[in-house]
């Protein structure tokens, strides 16, 4: 289960990094309603492979999108609806203050690079203070050290999603601090947080919080 979800999350990060979102068009209002993340991944993977159509479950109903018609058909009711594919790309450069991402022996850029922030280093001082100030507003634990997680793929995915949410709801970004078991840190650094693990089934294993 864990490997399956990690693989899905990696696919999701790649597709969001590409800045692609699929929508169905409400025939009455003309509003664009986005597909959920998992369905978006399924549709985009089929489209990228140049398949003629893709079948998926939506609210327990079997649906098919025929890419040539850009049309979704409910295979149970035979109702049809138009769909569109939007490119949401933004400038996805990593921050200039990031350190160069190390490379492996084959010259491939590492997925994750951890940078320990030094509050006495002029290049780290402001970043360290900003994070520690936010943390101390709601937490009483002693800060042992702060690390910047440099994962370019996840950072670009975050930028694309942030732009999409800002356009819909305005910017209301908040700092959130998250408890996690030590043996799960590497998975999160590489693949990001996965809300599907929240709750009674996986919550205690992956983190101490449940999302509402």
UniProtKB/TrEMBL annotation:
Keywords: Glycosyltransferase, NAD, Nucleus, Transferase
Localisation per UniProt entry: Nucleus
Example GO BP: negative regulation of gene expression
Superkingdom field: Eukaryota
Main location group: nucleus
GO cellular-component term (any): nucleus
Pfam families per the UniProt record, alphabetical: PARP (PF00644), WWE (PF02825)
PROSITE patterns assigned to the protein according to its UniProt record, in alphabetical order: PARP_CATALYTIC (PS51059), WWE (PS50918)
Single GO MF descriptor: transcription corepressor activity
Classification via InterPro entries: Mono-ARTD/PARP, Poly(ADP-ribose)pol_cat_dom, WWE_dom, WWE_dom_sf
Keyword Nucleus found: yes
PANTHER family: PARP/ZINC FINGER CCCH TYPE DOMAIN CONTAINING PROTEIN, POLY [ADP-RIBOSE] POLYMERASE
Protein name: Poly [ADP-ribose] polymerase 14-like
Source lineage: Eukaryota, Metazoa, Cnidaria, Anthozoa, Octocorallia
